[in-house]
Design brief:
Layout lengths: L13 E2 L35 E9 L2 E7 L2 E5 L4 E3 L8 E5 L7 E5 L4 E4 L4 E3 L8 E7 L2 E6 L4 E5 L2 E4 L3 E5 L5 E6 H4 L3 E5 L2 E4 L3 E4 L15 E5 L7 E5 L8 E4 L4 E6 L5 E5 L9 E7 L5 E8 L3 E8 L8 E9 L4 E8 L2 E6 L3 E6 L8 E4 L6 H4 L21
Parallel strand pairs: 14-19
Antiparallel strand pairs: 1-19, 2-3, 3-4, 4-5, 6-7, 7-8, 8-9, 10-11, 11-12, 12-13, 14-15, 16-17, 17-18, 18-19, 20-21, 21-22, 22-23, 24-25, 25-26, 26-27, 28-29, 29-30, 30-31
């Protein structure tokens, strides 16, 4: 998970959310009064078993994993050690905007942590909402979370993002307005071209055409994928437009595309979908002719997909291979190269994909870490669980 941009492009279907106070200036059919926000799931409560939700690194010798309850582990190239987070809240995401000079982590109950080399300290987030993702959108750092929570970073301060979002038809005309903090469900993943969420929603920059003085630009434009049904659980993105991928809880993966100077659209990469929700995506774009895309799924699968870079390719997907199937729930993936990957999941699980002999035959190897005794003893085999397990969004696994 930029600089300021203006889009002279349109999606096939665009939903934008805005304040009712501005609706009188637009030819709108309504002000969102007939839109009911999706129900919010109940997040997990203590006591919490040790799970890892996110992994990110600044290099081969600077890798962090975070999870619950308040867990942070760091790899320095030699050993994994636990670091002090100062919280018992679930930490849901960890990310660096600058190759590891600074790391951010976010979590439930409005937790935002920062580490610039001197240990982790808590920042004032200005919210007590559960936060699910931290990353860069359009040149700014954002966190997003439960019930449309969205905040941006300026220096050392976090500020509420504008709530105004608008719906446009295929011709760019405004058709409805909504309020992000009232009528959007969860926002789940920050990415370069949009803030992803529940029910297939993606908040993006308003697509008023360049030079169209009659178009009133709104802060956000909400665009629908997956038919407005599935949650977007995972995203990978950077400034290169086609290196933007999302995965859903319906096991579907999409890539952002543009035909010449035409509209942006999301291309589904395979059908039928995976049997499991996609919780993590990592892209290797080092080859000149293909992308290697790695997905981790709830069912404990790690899938590698080879996709042609040729935008004119009628069949872009070259291969889809399951390269790991371990059974335990996996919730994120990150790596430095296609033969040096880390995947994390429940029961404090860390997997490392590499060749210990330094050759060309990498495989998945479990990483041993030292857990505090009370957490190590709290791990319950799935067959013995008496309560339903839920993920960081509060959705059942």
């Amino acid at each position: 998970m930029a600089g300021s941009r203006s889009f002279g492009i349109r999606f096939g279907m665009v939903l934008l959310i805005g304040a009712c106070a501005l609706a009188s200036s637009l030819p709108l059919a309504g002000c969102g009064s007939d839109v009911e926000a999706p129900p919010q799931m109940t997040p997990p409560v203590a006591p919490l078993e040790p799970w890892f939700y996110s992994v990110w690194g600044g290099g081969t010798d600077d890798i962090y994993v975070v999870g619950q309850p308040g867990l942070i582990y760091h790899y320095n190239g030699t050993a994994w050690t636990q670091q002090t987070s100062g919280t018992a809240e679930p930490l849901t995401d960890v990310w660096s905007p600058n190759g590891g000079q600074t790391f951010y982590a976010c979590g439930h109950n409005g937790i935002i942590l920062i580490n610039s080399g001197g240990g982790w300290s808590r920042m004032d987030s200005g919210t007590d909402a559960d936060l699910y993702s931290v990353g860069t959108f359009d040149g700014a750092i954002y966190v997003c979370g439960r019930q449309g929570e969205l905040r941006s970073n300026s220096g050392n301060s976090w500020h509420a993002a504008p709530i105004d979002v608008i719906q446009r038809d295929n011709n760019g005309a405004a058709t409805d307005t909504l309020a992000r903090n009232e009528e959007i469900g969860s926002l789940t993943a920050v990415a370069y071209y949009g803030i992803n969420g529940s029910d297939g929603t993606i908040l993006m920059e308003d697509s008023c055409a360049e030079g169209d003085d009659s178009c009133v630009r709104w802060p956000w434009e909400l665009r629908l994928v997956t038919g407005g049904q599935e949650w977007v659980y995972a995203a990978w993105s950077d400034a290169d437009l086609p290196t933007n991928f999302i995965g859903t809880n319906g096991g579907r993966a999409f890539q952002l595309q543009q035909d010449n100077a035409g509209p942006l659209f999301w291309r589904e990469l395979f059908s039928p979908a995976f049997d499991d929700p996609i919780y993590g995506i990592w892209i290797d774009d080092s080859a000149p002719d293909v992308w290697l895309v790695f997905y981790v799924t709830q069912g404990g699968q790690i899938v590698r997909q080879e996709i042609l870079r040729d935008p004119a390719a009628i069949t872009p997907v070259v291969s889809t291979d399951i390269i790991y199937q371990g059974g335990l729930w996996l919730l994120d993936i990150w790596g430095t190269a296609a033969d040096n990957l880390y995947a994390v999941g429940i029961d404090a699980q860390i997997l490392h994909y590499y060749d210990p002999a330094g050759g060309d035959n990498p495989d998945w190897h479990p990483v041993e870490i030292e857990l505090p005794d009370e957490l190590a003893n709290s791990i319950t085999p799935r067959r013995d669980r008496t309560l339903p397990a839920v993920d960081k969004f509060g959705n059942p696994l």
